[in-house]
């Protein structure tokens, strides 16, 4: 209950205060390339329930696109504005909507797409999906430049499945063990510091 109240007390005023910036981002996305402002992708949330996450669109819009679900380095699909949004993590601000809706928390394990959740070991799956997914967590801070890391691999998909994903799951399990408002405060501060220094 305290964690949910913490989310609402920050996400609600946050959306109001950031409204001018969010409108500017939305306008930039629309002017930069044809397509919707938001990118809505199915992710797996608390209890294994699927939901559609909000992100400002950073790639060219292709209805029915079945391209790679991981982004590697300078992906040709990334727009000019999208590159800036990704580098600054501003595309993630749209997830404040998901926090208000209750499908996400400010801090929690990053929600994955169903195909990768299917790879979770059973015990870790149950543990990680026992809490609301979040905008940031230990893994988000440690792997904030994941695309560049995968770009160095000859087989990015395999590297993600066999190296990156297990490491992220261990960090997400650690978050579940330490879940609480004070942990969230520290992680939000770490995230802001990491973004500012990038």
UniProtKB/TrEMBL annotation:
> What residues form the membrane-spanning segments?
none
Instruction: Report domain Bacterial sugar transferase positions.
Output: 3-195
Which InterPro entries has this protein been placed in? Bact_transf (IPR003362)
Any keyword Transferase? Answer: yes
| Assigned keywords, A-Z | Transferase
Q: A GO molecular-function term, please? A: phosphotransferase activity, for other substituted phosphate groups
| Stored Pfam families | Bac_transf
Kindly indicate whether the keyword Transmembrane helix belongs to this entry.
no
Task: Tell me the protein family, please.
Answer: Belongs to the bacterial sugar transferase family.
The name of this protein is Lipopolysaccharide/colanic/teichoic acid biosynthesis glycosyltransferase
What species is given as this protein's source? Sphaerotilus hippei
């Amino acid at each position: 209950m305290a964690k949910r109240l913490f989310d609402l007390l920050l996400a609600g005023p946050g959306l109001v205060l950031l409204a001018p910036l969010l409108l500017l981002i939305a306008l930039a996305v629309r002017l930069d390339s044809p397509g919707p402002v938001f990118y809505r992708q199915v992710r797996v949330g608390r209890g294994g329930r699927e939901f559609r996450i909000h992100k400002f669109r950073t790639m060219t819009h292709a209805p029915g696109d079945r391209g790679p679900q991981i982004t590697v380095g300078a992906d040709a699909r990334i727009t000019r504005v999208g590159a800036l949004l990704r580098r600054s993590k501003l595309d993630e601000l749209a997830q404040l909507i998901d926090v208000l809706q209750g499908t996400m928390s400010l801090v929690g394990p990053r929600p994955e797409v169903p195909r990768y959740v299917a790879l979770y070991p059973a015990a870790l799956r149950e543990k990680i999906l026992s809490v609301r997914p979040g905008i940031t967590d230990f893994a988000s801070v440690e792997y904030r430049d994941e695309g560049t890391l995968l770009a160095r691999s000859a087989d990015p998909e395999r590297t993600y499945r066999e190296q990156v994903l297990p490491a992220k799951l261990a960090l997400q399990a650690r978050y579940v063990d330490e879940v609480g408002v004070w942990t969230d405060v520290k992680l939000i501060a770490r995230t802001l510091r990491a973004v500012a220094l990038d």
